[in-house]
């Protein structure tokens, strides 16, 4: 990504761009979805840097803005229930399937819950993925209550002795309060059957500051413990990942970079920072 090349060149005094100034760098960083508060802080610190130490100083600042919370999935429970939330269109259901694939390949027993019952396509998609991966998918009847599916799934996963139960949830945002109330209900029902290990929020990396706004809303409703950031490929500016971690202190746990099952991996902070500086 190399978002900070021009900033480092400016601090070092090696920039050859005739019209390059701090205002242009600010515009460029804002366009990368870092957010105004983080950009202002970075620029203020950069103006005080010594030229020779520019790259290491910027790297230190960026690293300090990442969350220090654990990035590994919780795995200490007999059945670790992972509730996956997010608005439609972020790649939520696909991320559920990819996470299941990753865990299954690592030798873990996994059960899936198709609790996005408002979208028949989501249920069918998860069933297809389940058959492909070789894991059981719990689904209710058409238009079944999401909380009911979640409850049945917890019961079944415990019976099977599954190490992980991953619950796909509804993502309609046309009525925000109704969606959050529904997610809260699903969460409470899950907790009647088993402790909730994780609440993972799926964010589309191309949505910029809108992704940060979504993270705030979902965090208030269901206490998000980690993020899955999708579409972090060549077209995504990627700065939103740093902005969310900096402002909300929610760790990114996984990233999706493409459509295939293998285009999904644990988030590596050092590699991410290196990409911003490359």
TrEMBL record:
UniProt-listed Enzyme Commission number(s): 3.6.5.4
UniProt-listed Gene3D superfamilies: P-loop containing nucleotide triphosphate hydrolases, Signal recognition particle SRP54, nucleotide-binding domain
One Pfam short name: SRP54
Entry GO terms, CC: cytoplasm; plasma membrane
Catalytic activity: GTP + H2O = GDP + phosphate + H(+)
Leader sequence residues: none
Compartment list: Cell membrane; Cytoplasm
Keyword Cytoplasm on entry: yes
Binding of GTP, residues: 86-93, 168-172, 230-233
Top-level EC class as recorded in UniProt: hydrolase
Keywords of this entry: Cell membrane, Cytoplasm, GTP-binding, Hydrolase, Membrane, Nucleotide-binding, Receptor
Subunit description: Part of the signal recognition particle protein translocation system, which is composed of SRP and FtsY.
Name of the featured protein: Signal recognition particle receptor FtsY
Originating gene: ftsY
């Amino acid at each position: 990504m190399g978002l900070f090349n021009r900033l480092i060149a400016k601090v070092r005094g090696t920039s050859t761009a005739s019209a390059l100034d701090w205002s242009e760098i600010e515009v460029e960083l804002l366009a990368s979805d870092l957010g105004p508060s983080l950009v202002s802080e970075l620029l203020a610190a950069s103006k005080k840097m010594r030229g020779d130490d520019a790259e290491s100083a910027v790297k230190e600042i960026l690293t300090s803005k990442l969350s220090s919370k654990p990035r590994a999935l919780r795995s200490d429970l007999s059945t670790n229930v992972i509730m996956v939330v997010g608005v439609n269109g972020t790649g939520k259901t696909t991320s559920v399937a990819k996470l299941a694939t990753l865990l299954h390949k690592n030798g873990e027993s996994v059960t899936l819950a198709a609790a996005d019952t408002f979208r028949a396509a989501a249920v069918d998609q998860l069933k297809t993925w389940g058959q492909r991966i070789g894991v059981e998918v719990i689904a209710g009847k058409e238009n079944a209550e999401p909380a009911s599916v979640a409850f049945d799934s917890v019961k079944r996963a415990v019976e099977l002795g599954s190490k992980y139960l991953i619950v796909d949830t509804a993502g309609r945002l046309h009525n925000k309060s109704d969606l959050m109330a529904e997610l809260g209900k699903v969460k409470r029902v899950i907790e009647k059957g088993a402790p909730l290990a994780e609440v993972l929020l799926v964010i589309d990396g191309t949505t910029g500051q809108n992704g940060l706004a979504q993270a705030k809303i979902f965090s208030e409703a269901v206490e998000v413990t980690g993020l899955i950031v999708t579409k972090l490929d060549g077209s995504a500016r990627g700065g939103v990942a740093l902005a969310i971690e900096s402002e909300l202190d929610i760790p990114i746990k996984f990233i999706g970079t493409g459509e295939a099952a293998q285009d999904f991996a644990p988030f590596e902070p050092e590699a991410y920072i290196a990409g911003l500086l490359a």
